[in-house]
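Retro notes (design track)

What went well: tokenization of the new backbones is finally stable.
What didn't: we kept losing track of which sequence belonged to which structure.
Fix going forward: every design gets posted as structure first, then sequence, in one message. First example under the new rule, 85 residues:
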């Protein structure tokens, strides 16, 4: 799964009441909705970054090459997706 896909999946988890109930941490909808929007924006940026990186170098964007903001958003997304604690 690409970083953009991880971020999008976390946003989906926050928005979907059926999936969201499986979260290990309770998230109020007043927090979940803006956080999901933020994760979506980071997903769009991560996808754009990967496309630009590929166009420039011919390779895939290594996670270490992403900005600090995307890396921070990935940490949050992975907690939401149950991949990290």
């Amino acid at each position: 799964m690409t970083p953009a896909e991880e971020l999008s999946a976390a946003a989906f988890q926050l928005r979907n009441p059926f999936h969201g109930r499986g979260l290990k941490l309770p998230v109020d909808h007043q927090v979940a909705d803006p956080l999901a929007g933020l994760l979506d924006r980071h997903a769009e940026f991560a996808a754009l970054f990967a496309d630009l990186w590929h166009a420039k170098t011919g390779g895939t964007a290594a996670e270490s090459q992403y900005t600090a903001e995307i890396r921070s958003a990935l940490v949050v997304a992975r907690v939401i997706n149950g991949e990290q604690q």
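Added context from the reviewer: The chain has four helices and no strands.
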